[in-house]
């Protein structure tokens, strides 16, 4: 194949991805090999590729490609999540555009629209992941509403219900008035927002008074939600608060509504907050609900599901809660009930999905008892290390949540999702059965009621759907059908999976719950390691979002820089658990790296090969690089074992850019228009192939392109399924020998640069050998510095510039190469400056006051300055002497 003059990823990437797919390199079936399994964190079926997906899936692809190269049976299961709230919201919005109201549709009609929408728009993100190079087993693609996936969820629901772990209860829940559904505690984000604290006065009446007269006077109550006074059913004071002793046994009148409510006493009231009086609204606050139950108070719910006021809202009926808040405050003020208003910072719960402000709401819901279920998952992470979190710092977060876990509200007032398998045959609270199918439910209902005449049409299934997370918590099991067929070949082979890569923001939503379900249904954790990535932020540290306009188009980046360039750019600064400050310049750096690799390949393939003796410099350079490569290989493996994926990339980057491209190729490069010996050429190609293998997990496209250019390969010899290099012994002597030679090379190059002596001009080098030195590297030094000869001398060379490396001093005669007089003048000026600097440092060190008061570290720095100045003066004086 002809080698293009420049690397063009747009022409390469689709061709090789299609090649990989055609030959089914990504497909896995159980065999005798060691499995390596990852399940993708399923993106929403509504989703499109963004920077977080790019980071997360690049890391997964690096891990899976490396495992494949290491000879493991690599299986990366892709799929999408039905995302009840997000998807239903999109479908409802689309229907509204068509003039259709969801309320006018039957469940079946709505679901048809939802499936049509999913068929048209769903799964786009999976196609986009292919452009990134993700090597998923696409034959295994799953959707959380696939028939067998849904059947698994229903089977688990019935099982947990029969174990007494799922129950139906009338509880205070988090209500999303935009999505019109309940949310679990974990789906509520608390944000500090500035609002107002309203001080409202209530009229007080005697306990036996039937009128609304002033009676015993007025009391003032502070609230952040004045609209909820319409649902007040009591006022509470602390029995220890002597300020309000006169109110005991009295009643008060709710402003505007005129309802008479009791004044109750309870130590729950904080004497220090507000006025020390608390309005009790059991329908709209979880703590008020507890007070209401304790004191047997009336419950008045003033809100409709969409957070407009209902008939209890009187003349505000039908208006939005926030509109009413402003209007009722104005009415209270006009009628003399609003005492004052203060600015107040308050933590407000918002929906993680819709961003709507949450309303506490009393509702019949389904709950899963979590305390006992969580115990094995706590032990697995915090005691036995069966599941390891990377970075380890997240263990504290995990501990706090798991040890304070609350029952999980698993029902949602949605149609898109698995419908709760509870069937009602009567109006009573217990008039239902739980079963996987209607047929099974009918038999259970007949048995429970003793009524053999019951018919299927007498049963009504619960309208609610299950929380999406109740589906995805089974993901590592259900993708291998491990719920319906718990002993099938695939679940036995692939489970537990190896690594999970995800964001810390779903540590509780998903990760902890998967661990819980893993122990409950497989008696094993679902994975061994959890790699928690950071969030992708912009250069200013802001979280990327559409509203800020700071989130680049992911596919646009791939188009501009190539998939490999973007992958490298993302991972160059993506340390585990730390947020990534994304800068598009990183993608340019990745693209530049790809170009460096390509140009290095073109250079090598452009050499003419001949049957010549191998030069000593080339032989030594190749031996050194082998050791350097194997040393780096050990570093890479160490980084991977600690999930330092970015550190591993940086080791490879330096190896390929500095050691291979900038050093080894210069050592072995033949003279201009001269051929290279076959021994060296073959060795360089073998080295390059090993480089491509370690690069491949990070840069799959360019490495496969070059691999196939090197020589003709069969499909079985493709790089994607090649063998990862095995580490060979490292020669410390070669590594340290080259490091020494590199210092000498740098010294020569520095003199050339300082004295403006071009590389094409030959120089000679003399070494004053004051100790022992290995002369093995002389040929390499000569090659990389254009030195014609190296001689070893016993005394300093007259008329030469010098530099020192360890115990050896190197001299470069420069007579004729530079202007001697100008050089003498330059050295004299530098010597004068350095001597002046030394005097100032010595003066400071002779100052007792400074020495007595300065920190020890500062004194040490000044001594180092003194030593460095004295050494520099000595070198300059020798150079000056040699020039005179």
Can you give a write-up of this model?
- This protein has 884 residues and is α/β, with parallel strands linked by helices.
- Among the domains are: 9-155 and 474-537, Rossmann fold; 190-358, Isoleucyl-tRNA Synthetase, domain 2, CATH 3.90.740.10; 554-734, Isoleucyl-tRNA Synthetase, Domain 1 (Orthogonal Bundle), CATH 1.10.730.10.
- Strands 7, 8, 9, 10, 11, 12 and 13 form a seven-stranded mixed β-sheet that branches. A four-stranded antiparallel β-sheet has the order 6-5-14-16.
- Strand 5 and strand 6 (181-183) form a beta hairpin.
- Residues 207-215 have low confidence and may be disordered.
SSE map:
Layout lengths: L8 H14 L12 E5 L11 H19 L3 E5 L1 E2 L3 H14 L9 H15 L2 H9 L9 E2 L3 H16 L3 E11 L4 E3 L4 E18 L11 E7 L10 E4 L13 E3 L6 E6 L11 E4 L5 H9 L26 H14 L3 E14 L7 E10 L2 H12 L5 E3 L3 H10 L4 E2 L1 E2 L9 E3 L7 E3 L3 H12 L10 E2 L3 E2 L1 H5 L2 H4 L10 H6 L2 E6 L4 H15 L5 E6 L3 E2 L16 H18 L8 E2 L2 H22 L3 E2 L5 H26 L3 H24 L7 E2 H18 L4 H11 L21 H23 L8 E7 L8 H8 L1 E7 L6 E6 L2 E6 L6 H26 L2 H6 L2 H28 L1
Helix pairs in contact: 1-21, 2-16, 3-4, 9-10, 9-15, 16-17, 17-19, 18-19, 18-20, 18-22, 18-23, 19-20, 20-21, 22-23, 24-26
